[in-house]
Amino acid sequence: MKDEEIKKPQTVAEEPSAVSKAKEADTNTDQVEITEEGNDETSENKDAKDQESKAWTGEDRLEAVGLSRREKRRYKREKYKKTVEGMTRNQKISYFLTYNKWPVIFSVTATVLIFLLGVTVYKNSRPVALSYVIVNAADPQAVDTSFKKDYCARFGMERGYQFHEQLNVSLDLDTYHAKFGELANNSDYTSVPMRAYNGYYDVMIMDEKGAEYCAYQDIIHPVKSYLPADILAQVEDRALMLPNYYKDVVPMAIDISDTEFAKSLNLGYDKVYLGFPGTTEENYENAKRLLIYTLGITAE
Predict the structure, then answer these.
(1) Interatomic CA distance for residues 12 and 173, integer angstroms
(2) Would the pLDDT of 172 be above 90?
(3) What is the 3-state secondary structure (H, E, C) of 104-171?
(4) Does pTM surpass 0.85?
(5) What is the DSSP-derived secondary structure letter of residue 205?
(6) What's the whole-number mean pLDDT along residues 88-105?
(7) Is the pLDDT of residue 168 over 60?
(8) Residue 236, CB-side half-sphere exposure with 13 Å CA sphere
(9) Environment class of 203 (CB within 10 Å of its CB; exposed 0-12, middle 13-18, buried 19+)
(10) Pairing between strand 249-255 and 273-275?
(11) Residue closest to 83 by CA, chosen among 47, 40, 59, 57
(12) Residue 13, SS3?
């Protein structure tokens, strides 16, 4: 009978115990290369503080649970003071901007928008001393508007008043008829009449070509229907006769060519006329003031 083969039990490799793992970890830790001594302490502190500051998203939130708003604010202030302790001024600024970037951006943007809104409201709410448009100036950039200071002083409007002016408008009846289709997108022939109809302008200062076009398009009113009798009697001899929208030849503008006001404007043409496009009481009052200032008329 064959000898029974005695099988030796196979040894199974035991998994390292938790104690072995801990020892191995300690050994590996001891083998970690030690960095140079004398590292910048400020840099280490800053890195540590950065990590500490980020902890607000974790454990600090848990600490703040159940606190009132005032207590949370006090907790945040104490946390901030502890974090920036030992930082230089530049580091504090950098830290503040890094972790408060969006609140800072929002605050600055809101402040700028509120300021601009306030400026816009203030400008638009100021009373208008005069709203006028210059038509067909030879060189719009050369137009002299220095009369405004003297004008305001004359009527006691030194502070708070504003002028609306448009100096570069070109209007001509011959051009209108010759290039009608091409002028559909020309703002001088589209937006200026609309502004006049809506009472934006008090007066229009122009040459005869401009007055002819404005009379034809009913942009300016006939002088007799716009000015009261007492003022009309003082300026009627200066009236420019032109065909109106209905082809009736009537007084449509006032000749102010010989006045110091007209000469001072430097319009590039000798014959200067004043037309009245206004549709509101304010338009009329402002136009009346300009007639007083320009021609020296008397009016109530």
Answers:
(1) 111
(2) yes
(3) HHHHHHHHHHHHHHHHHHHHHHCCEEEEEEEECCCCHHHCCCCHHHHHHHHCCCCCCCEEEEEEEECC
(4) no
(5) E
(6) 76
(7) yes
(8) 11
(9) buried
(10) antiparallel
(11) 47
(12) coil
Region 127-295: CATH code: 3.40.190
**Rounded distance, CA 204 to CA 260, Å?**
17
User: In the block, which residue shows the tokens 């009846």?
Assistant: 173
Tokens found for residue 115: 């300021």
Encoded tokens for 18: 């938790």
How many Cα neighbours within 13 Å face the side chain of 226?
29
CATH 3.40.190 residue ranges for the chain: 127-295
Residue 177: per-residue pLDDT: 87
d(CA 106, CA 13): 64
Q: Whole-angstrom Cα distance, residue 69 to residue 256?
A: 72
Question: What confidence tens digit (pLDDT) does each residue in 191-245 have?
Answer: 999 999 999 999 999 999 999 999 999 999 999 999 999 999 999 999 999 999 8
CA distances in angstroms from 109 to 99, 101, 106, 117, 120, listed in the order given: 18, 12, 5, 12, 16
Q: How far is CA 64 from the centre of its chain?
A: 42
Q: In sequence order, which residues have a C-beta less than 8 Å from that of residue 211 and are 6 or more positions away? A: 220, 240, 242, 252, 253, 273, 275
